[in-house]
Amino acid sequence: MPFYLEIIVSISLLIGSAFLLIGSYGLVRLPDIYMRLHSPTKASTLGITGILVASMIFQSHLKGFLSIQELLITLFLLITAPVAANMIAKTALHHRAKPLERTQNQELIDVIRDREPPRSPHDPS
């Protein structure tokens, strides 16, 4: 393997590992569910992406052609992580999980929780 590819793979692994470490620390350290959503959805997604990019470069060099399995996994994670975070936030709202006292705009939580669902344009009522 050429030295420049080893450098690229190593840097990508280090960046990905740093983001995963920060995301894991945030998941343990942040105090409530609404803040904890940011660690797995932002930092950890970037960390996994860095590691999968390193794997894609390494496997592409070994096989001699572009390895797309890692690219597909990365795209899947980048698409599904925000959706999963949205569902977790909606579940926390539904179960009335309390935010911290110092959280700003807490009155919006009640507004969001108690709002009416949108009506269909074909609804007769």
3D structure, described in words:
The protein is an all-alpha fold and 125 residues long. The chain has one domain (3-114). Helices cover 73% and strands 0% of the residues. The protein contains five helices and no strands. The protein has helices at 3-29, 33-36, 38-63, 69-94, 107-114. The radius of gyration is 20 Å and the shape is elongated. The model has no long low-confidence stretch (mean pLDDT 87).
The rough form would be described as elongated
Cα end-to-end separation: 68 Å
Name the helicity range.
over 70%
Q: Could you name the ranges where pLDDT drops below 50 across 5 or more consecutive residues?
A: none
The number of domains: 1
Q: How does the major sheet shape up?
A: none
Order of helices and strands: HHHHH
User: Beta-strand percentage?
Assistant: under 5%
Number of strands: 0
Supply the helix-strand structural class: mainly alpha
Task: Please state the average pLDDT score.
Answer: 87
The Cα radius of gyration reads: 20 Å
Please give the structural blueprint.
Blueprint: H1 3-29, H2 33-36, H3 38-63, H4 69-94, H5 107-114
Helix pairs in contact: 1-3, 3-4
List its salient traits.
125 residues; mainly alpha; 5 helices; 73% helix; 0% strand; elongated
